[in-house]
Amino acid sequence: MILPFPFVPESRDGLFESMEFVAMPLKYAVRIGKQVIFHFFLADYASRLIHVSQTVVKIP
After folding, report:
1. pLDDT at position 4, please?
2. Could you read off the pLDDT of 1-55 as tens digits, one per residue?
3. According to the 3-state scheme, what is the secondary structure of the chain?
């Protein structure tokens, strides 16, 4: 299950303000059993996706 999120994460070291990146990053979540993994991507002007971070959230 992939869920789209209109989400803008907070800046880390000015990365999200960099002119090398499109302003709106892509965030989606994948649910695997009882945990949800949130992925953060940024796309550069060549439309390459750059994996920035992921967060695993356990579902009780």
Report:
1. 45
2. 344 444 444 444 444 444 344 444 556 667 777 777 776 666 555 555 565 666 6
3. CEEEECCCCCCCCCHHHCCCECCCCEEEEEEECCEEEEEEEEEECCCCEEEEEEEEEECC
Fill in the DSSP letter of residue 15: G
User: What is the pTM assigned to this prediction?
Assistant: 0.32
Phi, psi of 27 (to 5 degrees): -125, 135
The token pair at 35 is 């945990």
Amino acid identity of residue 19, one-letter, is M
Residues 6+ apart with CB under 8 A from 2: 28, 29, 30
Q: Amino acid identity of 51?
A: H
